[in-house]
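We modelled each protein-ligand pair independently. The example shown here corresponds to the guanosine-5'-triphosphate entry; the chain sequence is given first, followed by the ligand as SMILES.
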Amino acid sequence: MDLGLVGRTNAGKTALFNLITGSSAEVAPYPFTTREAVRGMAEVPDPRIDAIADAQDIPRRVRAHVQVVDIPGLAAGAGQGEGLGGKALSELRQMDALIHVVRAFANSEVPHPEDAVDPHGDAEAVDLELLLADREQVDRRLEKVRKGAKSGDPVARTELAQLELLATDLDAGAPLRMTGDPDAVKLALDMGLLTAKPVLYVVNTDDPGAPPDNVAAYAAARDAQVLALAVGTELELAQLSPEEAAELAEELELGDVRGADAMVRAAYELLDLVTFFTGSGPPEARAWPIRRGLTADKAAGKIHSDLERGFIRAEVVPWQDLVAAGSFGKARESAQVRMEGKDYVVQEGDVMQIRFAV
Ligand SMILES: Nc1nc2c(ncn2[C@@H]2O[C@H](COP(=O)(O)OP(=O)(O)OP(=O)(O)O)[C@@H](O)[C@H]2O)c(=O)[nH]1
Ligand SMILES: [Mg+2]
């Protein structure tokens, strides 16, 4: 599951990428510093795993990770190949969700494409490029499907109607994630259309807090998530020792929770995955992200193929019940642990122990 970074050049995409993946990709005040897609892994913070581990004195905690892809900036006319447009757009089509970085930081050393810091205007400009790129893809597909529909092929006729709906919405300026017909949205996602993907707007700001009202309203109207993050400041904090970082955070009145953690968590939630846990005792507690609707045997297969092949049953307890009981063993004694077969659909927050034989 991949999260792609999208935004104008110099918005701070690579700075954010470095912050959440711990990479050191080149960050520079000139446009199109990033010329190729770069991949990294971001650890997904999850207080539930600490609760499970703390309750049972489990030393090692393994968190979920998501792949984040830093992508060259989008310029106006990206669809016609402006900037690194064509390449960036085809990378973006392969992503499962988008993190749209908009610049709100003032920094006279960093040129802005229009010499004005305007987070709302920048978001609109990039979204227009995504919309135009989608419109072009829909047109291409329409041309092909029309031929099939003419010959009376019922599948082609259904698709034709869906494509026409997508075209109408795009012409009205609406992102395809808001299209009313779920089958048409599914087609849009299968085609990799960009405005169908879930989006988190990250306002890269000098003063953390709530995102600007106009950007918040804009995101809400587009069925998207939004938050503000002081990328530059958090990068500085990340380079300090924990003590120094705490001191500086207090000075800047940042509070205890790092914005970067909240941001990765929000981005992870865009992917609409289910997280289950293993950790019924030492040596480790671990978070496992899976597709929604996966059954227990398939989920076990994520841990190891032997567990799926030799699956007998899963012992399952919701993480809160385990923590309240004190341990997996105690939850079992008080009959809070359920036995589930292979058809059980794994639920968010389940702690599972798999019984298997190979
Ligand atoms: N003051 C301040 N400067 C920042 C912040 N984030 C990024 N910058 C600066 O802005 C410039 C551009 O940052 P990058 O991360 O390279 O931007 P980008 O979006 O990856 O740009 P391209 O790869 O060129 O498309 C760099 O000089 C950064 O140091 C921030 O939060 N505050
Ligand atoms: Mg970059």
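Residues 212 and 228 are 8 Å apart (CA to CA).
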